[in-house]
C-alpha cells in the first residue's frame, strides 16, 4: 500500500531529474506539498508542471546548494510558502572525474564535487535544521552512496564526498535527536539517472569499450523504484528507522 504523506511539507533538492524527480512525483502523488530545488530550470519546470497538472501542489526554486545566500533565501521562502518544513529530501549531487588516476586528478574537479556533494549537504541541512528546531520536529534524508561508505568509486572525489555525506548524517543523527529531528541517509545502488548513465558511458570508454554498453545501461535500477524508499522514509511509518538505508 502506498504511504500517506497528506499534509507533509517537503523540500526536495535535485528535483529536476533522476531520483529527485521521481521522488518529487511520488511524494506529491501521496499528498505532500513540495518545494523543489535545482539548478536545471528547464527540467525543474517540467517536473513541477507534471506534478501540478496531476493535481499536486509544488513550486520550483533555482538553488545552487554551494551558494549559502541562495540556500538560506530559498529555505526561508519555501518555509513561508509551505507553512513550515516537515521533511528535507536532499538528493542534489554530481559525479565527475571517473577513471582519472590519483596523480593526475585535477583540483578543480575535486573542489567542484566536494563543494556540491558535501558542502552542499551541510549548507542545506544547516538552514533546514533551524526551521525544524523551531517546530520541534522534522525528518532529514540525505543521499550518500555505497561509494565511499562500503566500497570504492570510479572517482576519487565522488567516493570521498559521499563518504563525507554519510559521516555528516551520523553526526547529525546523534546531535539532532534531542530536537525530535530524525536523520537518515540513503545509499542508492546503480540507478538509471542522467548522472549514472553518463558515468557508465565514461567507464565503458575508459575500459576500451569492452562489453555491451546498452546492456550495462539497461542493468541500472529505475529511479522510480528508489523513490519508494525516500517516500517511505519521509512518512510517519518510518519513525523507527535509524541511520543508513541501502538500496539495489
Automatic annotation (TrEMBL):
SUPFAM superfamilies in the record: NAD(P)-binding Rossmann-fold domains (SSF51735)
Alphabetical UniProt keywords: Oxidoreductase
Signal peptide: none
UniProt keyword RNA-binding present: no
Domain of life: Bacteria
One MF annotation (Gene Ontology) recorded for this entry: oxidoreductase activity
Stored CDD domains: SDR_c
Pfam families: adh_short (PF00106)
Protein family per UniProt: Belongs to the short-chain dehydrogenases/reductases (SDR) family.
Protein name: SDR family NAD(P)-dependent oxidoreductase
Protein source organism: Candidatus Lucifugimonas marina
UniProt lineage: Bacteria, Bacillati, Chloroflexota, Dehalococcoidia, SAR202 cluster
